[in-house]
Design brief:
This protein is α/β, with parallel strands linked by helices. About 30% of the residues lie in helices and about 20% in strands. The protein contains seven helices and nine strands.
Length: about 250
């Protein structure tokens, strides 16, 4: 596992540099195999990153017609809901770039039965990779997965103590967020899918997350407490943080 830590002075510098990294990866992947598959995260931290990608410095350097957008997780709400990860991304990024509608692969959180939404999303991922690669094996290989880290060490919608943490076969599953969270029903990529990615970015902002990030980086064996520590991608893992890790 190849891990790199990039530290920045504030969230603005963090977002700008993460955007540049994504642009570089997009260029490399499109040159290498003709498309770029990017998995996005929700929450408040990546919004500024998405705005940077939609800005003049980045937008014109990405071949949007060859870029395909996926999500690592979604809340079980309609796509125009305030808590929808898709909705936040649509406002900050998708509505501002020439990305074809067919290249947007969202999780349909509005489906009444969450497991049906998970099954449909897994099928869409499978169709995409079968159409774009010679073979996908047991798991798809996204080019880049963007993740965050919660104060409890969760990532995507993979929460401490969840049965999903031991999932070995499914690509997409349902999950339950802790009771204090506004929307508990979730749909998420599973750990084997994330770990099969060619690259992973952790985007983490705020001193409140410093301690948990230090533990995850220094002691990844503590995965029973911190699902983020279970991310051990086949490719490079890059941490973008705006605080001192050591």
């Amino acid at each position: 596992m190849n891990v790199t830590i990039k530290q920045f002075k504030d969230s603005e510098e963090l977002s700008r540099n993460a955007a540049e990294y994504i642009v570089d990866q997009a260029e490399k992947c499109i040159l290498d195999h003709g498309f770029f598959s990017l998995v996005l995260s929700g929450g408040s931290t990546p919004r500024r990153l998405y705005e940077q990608l939609a800005g003049d410095q980045c937008r014109r350097r990405i071949s949007w017609d060859k870029t395909h957008i996926f999500w690592g997780d979604e809340r079980c709400v309609p796509p125009d809901h305030f808590d929808s990860n898709y909705n936040m991304t649509a406002q900050a990024l998708l509505s501002k770039v020439p990305l074809p509608e067919r290249n947007i692969h969202r999780i349909k959180g509005e489906i009444a039965i969450p497991n049906e939404a998970a099954i449909q999303y897994e099928a869409e991922i499978g169709d995409f990779f079968r159409n774009h690669t010679a073979a996908i094996g047991d798991f798809p290989a996204f080019d880049l997965v963007l993740l965050g880290v919660g104060n409890d060490g969760h990532t995507a919608s993979l929460f401490p103590g969840s049965d999903i943490l031991t999932e070995k076969k499914r690509w997409v599953a349902t999950s339950q967020a802790p009771p204090e969270m506004a929307v508990r029903d979730r749909i998420t990529l599973t750990i084997p899918v994330i770990n099969h990615a060619s690259g992973v970015i952790f985007l983490v902002s705020g001193e409140s997350k410093r301690d948990v990030v230090q533990i995850i980086i220094e002691d990844p064996g503590r995965n029973e407490l911190y699902p983020s520590a279970m991310i051990r991608a086949d490719g490079e893992i890059v941490w973008f943080v705006d605080f001192d890790v050591y």
